[in-house]
Amino acid sequence: MIASTPRQTSRADSISVLLGLLFVCYAVAALGALVTAHEVPAWYATLSKPNFSPPNWIFAPVWTVLYGLMAVAAWLVWRTPTSGSNSTSRRSGLILFALQLLLNFLWTPVFFRFHQLLPALVVILCLWGLILLTALRFWKVDRLAGGLMLPYLVWVTFATALNYEIYRLN
């Protein structure tokens, strides 16, 4: 299904849900930033990194955009009508979204706070799989929502390679 008529909710409810999703996604970002703030200069800076490692300043703007895209994607799926097979796809897509957001949240302290590079690699590999499943499920409900998840999948693919190389080099 390309896009469907939005579910029958008031404009205020729809905006409230979008704002709630943005709040949740940016709360995950803020908590991650709190964990990394001290660890980037104190620990991460001391690690051997591959030559494709980007400068540290790039992470905040990239993640800011990605969390916004994720929230809008989830909102597009939420506002899709809940009839027939679409209802199951919608529900499972939103559950997958919540699970991947949880793994996204967990990766940061595993990597930055506890300095556990191999367990962090396992977490990010699981995260990658959940993002893929979420994007596919979102695509089935609303193609724009599925497409909005693709930059996130690409970035986490890059982050996975970076995590692996940092593990290998250290």
UniProtKB/TrEMBL annotation:
Keyword annotations of the record: Membrane, Transmembrane, Transmembrane helix
GO biological process: tetrapyrrole metabolic process
GO cellular component terms, semicolon-separated: membrane
Superkingdom as given in the UniProt entry: Bacteria
Subcellular location: Membrane
Pfam families: TspO_MBR (PF03073)
TM segment ranges: 12-37, 57-78, 94-112, 118-136, 148-167
Primary localization: membrane
InterPro entries with a match to the protein in the record: TspO/MBR-related_sf, TspO_MBR
Keyword Transmembrane helix: yes
Membrane topology: Multi-pass membrane protein
Family listed: Belongs to the TspO/BZRP family.
PANTHER family: PERIPHERAL-TYPE BENZODIAZEPINE RECEPTOR, TRANSLOCATOR PROTEIN
Protein name according to UniProt: Tryptophan-rich sensory protein
The species this protein was found in: Tunturiibacter lichenicola
